[in-house]
Amino acid sequence: MSVKVFIIGGAGYIGSHMAKLAYMDGHTVIVLDNLSTGHRDAVKYGKFEFCDINNLERLQELFDLYEPDIVMHFAAFSIVGESVLDPYKYYNNNISGTLNLLKSMTDHKCNKFIFSSTAAVYGDPQYIPIDENHVKKPINPYGKSKLMVEDILEDFDLAYGMKYVTFRYFNAAGHDADGELSERHNPETHLLPLILQASRGERDSISIFGSDYNTPDGTCIRDYIHVSDLCQAHLKGLKYLIRGKKNATSRIYNLGNEKGHSVREVIESVKSITGKNFTVVSQKRRQGDPATLVASCDKAKKELSIAFKYTKLEDIIKTLV
Q: For the chain: N or C, fewer Cβ within 10 A?
């Protein structure tokens, strides 16, 4: 069944991959983005409309014009360290902007929403792997802003019948297998592309932020999921909401590979795959970084029949090389 979908933040890393996948699946795609971190040339599929979610008037115009069936929201600021230094930026965009988006949806009777949340809502894990029932105590404004939106969605469901699928990402990584799309943050903050830059000589070194964590090699452990697998899960969420119509109930799912890799392990894997050596520098810990984050994805796999293609770290890295 083909639907009309708004992809908010569709000029960014994950959003552009999602726009491609949704378009290739036969849906009418309209990308809304203010290009603050996205790239106009990354919108290769669907129609592009310049829009900042803090501009309610512009949002209302676009909802009037297109009348979307479903909205997918990728337009959050997401750098943990920056959120600690500039919480206003994060609360203003991630909460106020999302409220504008949800108001536009309810005003136009669009009641299907897919939300990009984060493992940061859990804070320091009390057990590993982390399932969806884990206590939620975010330790940085980024995670707090996402959890606030999750709470808002629960209230919008109760009051307005807003049905949603929320995906709590662990670490998105990798590039489009066709080579059309890539990760182009400026400045780049994600570990894997930074390491690849070091391997190509595009940066002098790669930094490890904290080597005294309570982990086997002292560095943070993270769970990496390929961006294409992540977007396939979103497509499953879209189909769940559309096929369920009025009978669909709102859902929350983790998205990760259920495997943890330390920062040192990731660095060594890149060195092995590329055959390149480069300088590694130890820095002090960053504020707001938990030692270990590894997902349990049993719920998503069972309820949405999700099967990941890129289950090995090496296979994810190879899409970047």
A: N
Domain at 191-222+257-318, CATH from 3.90.550.10, 3.30.470.30, 3.40.1490.10, 3.90.25.10:
3.90.25.10
Q: How confident is the model at residue 245 (pLDDT cuts 50, 70, 90)?
A: low
Give the distance, in angstroms, between the CA of residue 223 and the centroid of all CA atoms in the same chain: 13
CA gap 226, 175 in Å, rounded: 8
pLDDT in tens, 190-214: 899 999 999 999 999 999 999 999 9
Give yes or no: 122 in active site.
Answer: no
**What DSSP character marks residue 195?**
H
Check whether the bond before 290 is cis (ω within 30° of 0): no
The whole model's pTM is what?
0.94
Mean pLDDT of the 51-75 span: 98
Q: What strands, in cross-sheet order, belong to the sheet with 112-118?
A: 47-50, 28-33, 4-8, 70-73, 112-118, 163-169, 251-255
CA 106/CA 223 separation, integer angstroms: 35
From the candidates 66, 122, 142, 169, which is the catalytic residue? 142
Q: Which two tokens stand for residue 164?
A: 């949603």
Q: What is the CATH number of domain 4-173+224-255?
A: 3.40.50.720
Task: Return the closest-CA partner of residue 119 out of 291, 302, 301, 309.
Answer: 291
pLDDT at 187: 75
Which tokens in the block code for residue 158? 């109760």
Three-class SS state of 57 = helix
Domain ranges for the chain: 4-173+224-255, 191-222+257-318
DSSP assignment of 163-189, as one string?
A: EEEEEEESEEE---TTSS-----SS--
Residue scoring higher pLDDT (296 or 81): 296
Tell me how far apart the alpha carbons of residues 231 and 242 are, in angstroms, rounded to a whole number: 16
